[in-house]
Write a structure and sequence with these properties.
The chain has 401 residues and is of the alpha/beta class.
């Protein structure tokens, strides 16, 4: 009896969307799935604020791709390789060392911090935290700065000045968590030198532009309670090693700066001859296929998603919904069934605002305080457990060989 033909599926990028697609597609035994990523680990970017503020170490915000993929029933493989190009006509994904053939392709490469060339000194002196190595570097620098402050106690006690440029979700969460951590750190240890200045720069008239008024009000009040200096209607125009110049002419002393003022697609997207929007993100249709190729899908931060003409903000929740629908439509293509149109929308949001406090809106219900904080912790824990289950299974298989 002839063995059923295997469906070769390649997933480029192991972010939230990519891993959920792997999980969904691996349930079908006739699928052979290849995951490609330039890194050896999945980085849980939604937990970056906890990593920086020492609530979690890097092992708690990352998952090893090799053990994760080994945890499936031998139909998932991982290759630590960076994709350089894609031959859509001959259905090949090309890296520096190999060529991989596919029947179906999912592009899920995510996005990276966009260091604007128009801002002098930005690339040289600012830090991004969307990549794990950048977040780890900043975490170490932040802790060393706190230590130096303690070492200065009883002498000069110079203020530690941190500038966070960009008052979107990432910027707000990081500013709040650093302020909360530093405040607790100094008080708990009874240190004399406690001068910490966090400046949050917002190009809009308020933080969290475009979000619900309830979330904005609660978040802004929490930031003020943490003594964060919010500068609205201004932007960073240049940096030096020790200062930031703002658009209103103010020069702010700076020990270090986090730039959370925008994202751009990862490098591969620029190399692809596909239709893109004004931000260079991939255009996709209502079935999540890239325009021009029915066997190629794009999900997550590298693609532009609209629902009834309204842009859907790129979040982990949205990426996972896209992955689930994308996987379903790939199976529909295999079975010559009608494809399913997307109706993806945000199911809710929880904003971490320092230790023991969060605010959010879940399924239309507003929630704030410690309860929201606990809810966010539970969601993060459940996500990690799901990935860790496959990793433990894969690790056990590998060490039994």
């Amino acid at each position: 009896m002839q063995e059923d033909k295997k469906n070769r599926i390649i997933v480029i990028g192991g972010g939230y969307g990519g891993l959920r697609a792997v999980e969904k597609l691996a349930k079908h035994k006739n699928n052979t799935i290849t995951l490609l990523d330039k890194n050896a680990y999945h980085f849980m970017q939604t937990d970056v604020y906890e990593l920086i503020a020492n609530e979690k170490d890097f092992a708690q915000v990352s998952v090893d791709f090799f053990t994760y993929c080994s945890g499936f029933d031998r139909n998932v493989s991982f290759f630590k390789q960076e994709v350089s190009s894609i031959d859509f006509i001959n259905k090949r994904v090309i890296t520096a060392t190999q060529r991989f053939s596919y029947d179906y392709l999912i592009i899920a490469v995510g996005a990276r911090t966009k260091f604007l060339q128009s801002i002098e000194g930005l690339a040289e002196y600012a830090h991004g935290v969307k990549a794990l190595h950048r977040a780890m570097y900043f975490k170490q620098k932040f802790e060393m700065s706190l230590f130096k402050k303690v070492d200065e106690s009883g002498t000069v006690c110079r203020p530690l000045n941190i500038v966070v440029a960009g008052a979107g979700l990432s910027g707000v969460e990081i500013a709040a968590q650093m302020a909360s951590f530093a405040k607790e750190f100094y008080c708990r240890n009874n240190f004399l030198c406690r001068k910490l200045n966090i400046i949050l720069v917002s190009s809009s008239s308020r933080v969290l532009k475009g979000m619900d008024d309830y979330l904005v009000k609660k978040s802004q009040q929490r930031l003020l309670d943490l003594e964060i200096n919010i500068k609205n209607n201004t932007r960073v125009v240049s940096l030096t090693k020790n200062s930031v110049t703002l658009s209103d002419g103010e020069i702010v002393p700076m020990d270090f700066m986090i730039f959370a003022g925008g994202i751009e697609p990862n490098g591969l997207i620029y190399a692809l001859d596909l239709q893109k929007d004004e931000r260079d993100l991939l255009k996709i249709n209502k079935y999540l296929q890239v325009l021009g190729y029915e066997d190629v899908f794009a999900i997550g931060d590298c693609a532009t998603l609209y629902n009834q003409g309204r842009h859907i903000a790129p979040t982990a929740d949205v990426a996972e919904q896209m992955a689930a629908l994308c996987s379903e439509n790939i199976m529909n293509l295999m079975g010559n069934r009608e494809l399913k149109k997307h109706n993806i929308k945000s199911r809710g949001i929880l904003i971490a605002l320092g230790r023991g406090y969060a605010t959010g809106r879940i399924l239309g219900v507003n929630i704030s305080g410690y309860l929201a904080y606990c809810m966010k912790k539970v969601i993060e824990k459940l996500y990690f457990i799901q990935l860790d289950r496959h990793s433990k299974k894969g690790c056990s298989k590998i060490f039994k060989m």
